[in-house]
Amino acid sequence: MRIAFVHSFPQEYHGIMYLAAALKAAGHECEVFVTSLEKNILGELARFAPRLVGFSCTTGEHLAMARLAGRVRRELGAMTVFGGAHATVCPEIVEHEGVDAVCVGEGEDALCELAAVLERNGEIAEIRNLWVKRGGAVVKNEPRPLREDLESLPRPDWSLYYKYRFLREKTTKTFIGSRGCPFRCTFCTDPYFQSLYRGKGRYLRMRAPRSFAAEIREQKEILRFDTVTFDDEVFVWNRDWLREFLPLYRREVGLPFFCGVRADTLTEEIVGELREAGCYGMSFGVESGSEFVRNEIGGKGISNEQIVSAARWVKARGIILRTTSMFCMPGETPARAWETVRLNVDCRVDHPFAYVYQPLPKTGMYDYAKARGYLGDGFNFDRLEPLHLGDNPLRLERKGEILNIQKLFYLAVRHPRLIPLLRLLVKLPPNPLFNGIFKICLVRNYSRYKKLGLRKTLAIALKTRGIAQEVEPL
User: Fold this and answer.
1) What is the pLDDT of residue 471?
2) What are 195-221's pLDDT values in tens digits?
3) Which long-range contacts (CB under 8 A, 24 or more apart) does 424-432 make?
4) If 0-12 CB within 10 Å is exposed, 13-18 middle and 19+ buried, where does residue 469 land?
5) In the prediction, which pLDDT does 470 show?
6) Quick one: average pLDDT of 423-448?
7) Domain residue spans in the chain?
8) How far out from the chain centre does Cα 243 lie?
9) Check: CATH 1.20.1110.10 for 169-469?
10) From 3.40.50.280, 3.40.50.10400, 3.40.50.1100, 3.40.30.10, which CATH number describes the 2-140 domain?
11) Is the dihedral of CA 440, 293, 415, 318 positive or negative?
């Protein structure tokens, strides 16, 4: 059976590569279609003529993707199934006329079962993990137990994306060696995933170090990329695994790499081991310079002192430091926003990045914001901005000033002597000039820490810009 996968962002999706590998092992034919890289997405899907089309999307782009799914159903006659993070936290999207079913949680076994049942024209309503429309109602099946041994799954099928020159020519590739996160930050959906799978197997799982290193080496030989990015939720939470993997990586791959960490998982020794293995850059979340916002509201559980210490170890080893901060969270004020600037300055951050908080469904911070009146009665997840760079729906005093600080954040952190002037400028109404400064700094930031070059970064920016434009403004 032919199965197509559709998503929007111009990058390889590891979940889809795993799904395709499992389906191919079961004898099915799979192809991926990236909407931002296709000129005629429906025409290309019609050429492939799939019986089943899987859609992956984030919160904020889900309605645009559901509308596309509706056209696929009407014009191609294919069954549509939604999966991924948004579908798992909001499986009610199955009620949209374009969606036949939703896969809740990890989907390798569920999709293989679905494909097998469809091939024999059987009944799909009792397949675990799936929410399915039947007789004007929705049948809601529980998730099956987790695959605790990731090596029992076929390796991700990178060949899906070889057809896209844009992706083949990227000089960095992203790899993921784990599933799950041990932490419970309230702005993140991961605590919900933890509760969804409670009693259904070990949630935190790692690839076998040797197998993971071999996958990277094989793709290096095929794609000839220059750097690696590890995009695990937290790359260093399992230190025993890390100490087994790093020597293998250094010997078998030997490319410079970038990784995401948490400040409280680092020690001076761990940073040294990462550097020796080829780590050129590291990123961790600061979120807010206010410990009240970060820890009491955000549930992060990391002190300013831990953040500064981690930054000092990273910088001492000559590793590029990137941080991520969020503005306009519940409890945010201009004074607290400037605390975020100051903490990043104290960390001597090379690439400071500033998101605008978006209240995601099934998160503790959304519940907090709703209970305390930060969100109006008319709030709707359908209008969230998927890139987390624009406005947000919270009711905050002097919100325009906070958004201006976010737009000028890079300048303030990298050039702290400008802060007295910037403190005056942010009192102006939000304006196109500040937005333009933010976009220039964003492109410069991304191109440098990803080692992509300006041309490729601009191409990525242009292709992702359309995704955000499909959402109604707040």
Assistant:
1) 41
2) 999 999 999 999 999 999 999 999 999
3) 426/334, 426/401, 427/401, 428/404, 429/400, 430/400, 430/403, 430/404
4) exposed
5) 46
6) 90
7) 2-140, 169-469
8) 26
9) no
10) 3.40.50.280
11) negative
Helix, strand, coil percentages for the chain (3-state, nearest 5): 45, 15, 35
If 0-12 CB within 10 Å is exposed, 13-18 middle and 19+ buried, where does residue 113 land? buried
Confidence at residue 141, expressed as pLDDT on a 0 to 100 scale: 98
Nearest-5° angle of CA 151, CA 235, CA 10?
80
What residues contact residue 416 under an 8 Å CB cut-off, 6+ apart? Answer: 345
| Torsion sign, CA atoms 212, 213, 216, 222 | negative
Query: Which is it for the CA torsion 206, 196, 259, 343, positive or negative?
Result: negative
> Residue type at 405?
I
Q: How far is CA 352 from CA 246, 285, 346, 442, in A?
A: 27, 10, 12, 9
- Residue position matching structure tokens 């191609």: 76
Question: Which token pair is 37?
Answer: 């890289």
Residues composing the chain: 474
pLDDT tens track for 150-188: 999 999 999 999 999 999 999 999 999 999 999 999 999
Closest CA to 264 of 294, 230, 305, 317: 305
